[in-house]
Amino acid sequence: MRFTLDMTLQDIMAANPKTVDAMQEMGLHCLGCPFSIKENLGNAAQMHGIDPQALLARVNEVEQGEMSAQAKANSQPEASVLQMDKKTYAIAPHIPAGVATPAILRKIADVAEKYQAAALKVTTAQRIAIVGLKPEDVPKAWADLGMDPGHAAGVCVRSVKVCPGNTFCKRGLQETLTFGVELDKRYHGMPLPSKFKIAVAGCPNKCTDSATVDLGLMGTSKGYHLYVGGNGGVKPRLADLLWENLQESERFPAVEAVIEYYKEKAKPQERLGRMLDRLGLDELRGRVGKTLETLSSVKQ
Predict the structure, then answer these.
(1) Which of 35, 144, 170, 231 is least crowded, fewest Cβ atoms below 10 Å from its Cβ?
(2) DUF1858 domain spans which residues (predicted)?
(3) Within this chain, do residues 186 and 286 fall inside the same structural domain, yes or no?
(4) Segment 126-138 mean pLDDT
């Protein structure tokens, strides 16, 4: 069969395992990561600074067969991220809403010390990454942790960032922690057309950057403002204010309406903000409005 740039790495490897050798030779060293292999070939080439057409030509010229022993040895350990030295890996245990118990912190510290990690890094996604692990130690570290991996890569909901809200912060206007944990439970790791980030802030200070992620909620004295379409990266985009002062019962229906609309309308690898640049905001606002109207009529 002939491969195309919009095919996922996972599908290409399944169709012809020998392509793993070719892709590793071209610079794709993330073929053991369960998140990265869901990226398509074109996006993977772009992320690794490889000419997409050259990579496509290379995988299409590979004869059918099994991957080599060397390719297996070079495969990235599951749920890890290759580091700059191209020899060691980082793992990022998932910490829902960024709230960690002393027991979790001790466990992460013990594992880092046991496997002589180079560093512990608090990430912007409210995780604690264990950096600089040897490949053979990655599965052992995960076994010792007994924690779920954070979805740090792949076309899915990557992270749900949450501030302390009115549970702890003197500036908090709305509750965030219970809400954020439930958002995380429902959506973290959900496959979507492109990567997707969510943030919840308890006040207009937006300490979780809720106006620069794909879907953000911000507490006000009257409810929650809903922002959509923000992103960082090479072409930053400030989110659009989609709805003002959502009430507690309206939060999840509104979020679900946005995500379902995104699933329906987005092109592969298209962030929500770029989709809104293409389609405009009116239809999505109408979808959310209809959802809330239906919710209101059901209550009555």
Answers:
(1) 170
(2) 4-55
(3) yes
(4) 95
- If asked whether residues 135 and 183 sit together in one domain, one would say no
Q: With 60 as the cut, is the pLDDT of residue 37 above it?
A: yes
Same domain, 166 and 293: yes
Over 60: is that where the pLDDT of 34 sits? no
Residue-averaged pLDDT of the chain = 92
Q: Are 163 and 176 in contact (CB under 8 A)?
A: yes
Q: Structural domain of residue 65, as residue ranges?
A: 9-76
pLDDT in tens, 263-288: 999 998 899 999 999 999 999 999 99
pTM for the model:
0.81
SS3 per-residue string spanning the chain: CCCCCCCEHHHHHHHCCCHHHHHHHHCCCCCCCCCHHHCEHHHHHHHCCCCHHHHHHHHHCCCCCCCCHHHHHHCCCCCCEECCCCCCEEECECCHHHCCCHHHHHHHHHHHHHCCCCEEEECCCCCEEEEEECHHHHHHHHHHHCCCECCCCCCEEEEEEECCHHHHCCCCCCCCHHHHHHHHHHHCCCECCCCEEEEEECCCCCCCCCCCCCEEEEECCCCEEEEECCECCCCCECCEEEEEEECHHHHHHHHHHHHHHHHHHCCCCCCHHHHHHHHCCHHHHHHHHHHHHHHHHHHC
Residues 164 and 294 in one domain: yes
| Number of structural domains the chain divides into | 3
